[in-house]
């Protein structure tokens, strides 16, 4: 461990603290400490790309690095807002450094998702260059009819779920960022695949698109959820969310949501008590 970069040693300490279920009080001070040294934050970005490129990335280390980056970016956002600005020099340096990594031909898509997730958690825009890389990534994805393309798409999303700690709300927020930049004619089809994914978190996140302003998207998701419910793929958590969401959609669309809920219950999905919602 003595030969490891100090930032990686810190990431391992953070990972152990996160794994304990009782993070130390010093965890919240990491953003303040790193934000005083732009080179340290860029080292975190380097480590994210380095870890993600490994054959078997260390998930806990990636999660801790993502936490360190997101916490630092959030501190910087607060500083920017306190001065009436939308950004800081450090935020811009991180964007440029991450974009330089992401633009390489052999870059890990997992690393791109982790970086994008950190910016999403900090409620910061990625920036034009990084967003263009994300858009090109999705533009180059083979047609949805390709089984290999679907499997690759699902694997990338599962890696993103792991990087975001399995939080369906963060996953939905990040998917909004990612899928919002793909060509409009392919977006509904790709979103419509989510209710059939292996990951229950991805299936839960799909319900949020019932509120999408694009009728093509909301219609596809409604149809996909109906089919998924018939296959027993709609969980109790999702049933609860559907019951909540129906109050926010037009009355003409509520019967379809009610039908999904009934089918899911018939297939064994048990709505959870509010206190048990995940």
Can you tell me about this structure?
This protein is mostly helical and 278 residues long. Helices cover 64% and strands 0% of the residues. It has 14 helices and no strands. It has helices at residues 6-19, 30-35, 38-52, 59-82, 89-102, 109-121, 128-139, 147-163, 168-179, 187-192, 200-206, 215-230, 236-245, 254-266. The two termini are 36 Å apart. Mean pLDDT is 80; it is low at 141-146.
Give descriptors for this structure.
mainly alpha; 278 residues; single chain
Q: What's the topology here?
A:
Layout: H1 6-19, H2 30-35, H3 38-52, H4 59-82, H5 89-102, H6 109-121, H7 128-139, H8 147-163, H9 168-179, H10 187-192, H11 200-206, H12 215-230, H13 236-245, H14 254-266
What does the largest sheet look like? none
Radius of gyration: 20 Å
Q: Assign an overall shape.
A: elongated
Protein structure class: mainly alpha
Q: Roughly how much helix do the residues carry, as a percent range?
A: 55-70%
DSSP summary: helix tally: 14
Note poorly predicted spans.
141-146
- What gap, in angstroms, lies between the N and C termini? 36 Å
Number of strands: 0
Write the element-wise H/E pattern from the N-terminal end onward: HHHHHHHHHHHHHH
Strand content: under 5%
The residue-averaged pLDDT reads 80
């Amino acid at each position: 461990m003595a030969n490891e970069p100090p930032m990686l040693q810190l990431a391992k300490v953070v990972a152990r603290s996160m794994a304990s279920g009782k993070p130390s009080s010093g965890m919240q001070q990491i953003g303040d400490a790193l934000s005083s040294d732009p080179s340290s934050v860029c080292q975190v970005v380097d480590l994210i790309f380095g870890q993600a490129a490994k054959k078997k990335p260390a998930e806990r280390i990636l999660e801790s690095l993502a936490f360190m980056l997101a916490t630092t970016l959030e501190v910087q956002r607060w500083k920017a807002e306190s001065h009436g600005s939308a950004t800081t020099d450090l935020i811009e340096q991180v964007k440029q450094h991450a974009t330089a990594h992401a633009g390489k031909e052999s870059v890990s898509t997992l690393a791109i998702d982790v970086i994008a997730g950190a910016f999403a958690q900090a409620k910061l825009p990625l920036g034009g260059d990084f967003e263009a890389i994300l858009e090109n990534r999705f533009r180059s994805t083979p047609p949805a009819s390709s089984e290999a393309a679907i499997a690759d798409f699902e694997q990338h999303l599962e890696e993103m779920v792991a990087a975001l700690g399995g939080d369906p709300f963060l996953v939905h927020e990040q998917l909004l960022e990612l899928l919002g930049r793909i060509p409009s004619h392919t977006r509904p089809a790709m979103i419509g695949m989510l209710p059939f994914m292996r990951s229950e978190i991805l299936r839960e996140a799909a319900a949020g698109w019932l509120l999408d302003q694009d009728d093509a998207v909301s219609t596809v998701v409604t149809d996909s959820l109906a089919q998924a419910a018939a296959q027993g793929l709609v969980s109790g958590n999702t049933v609860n969310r559907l019951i909540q969401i129906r109050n926010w959609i037009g009355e003409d669309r509520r019967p379809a949501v009610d039908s999904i809920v009934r089918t899911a219950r018939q297939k064994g999905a048990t709505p959870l008590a509010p206190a048990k919602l995940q």
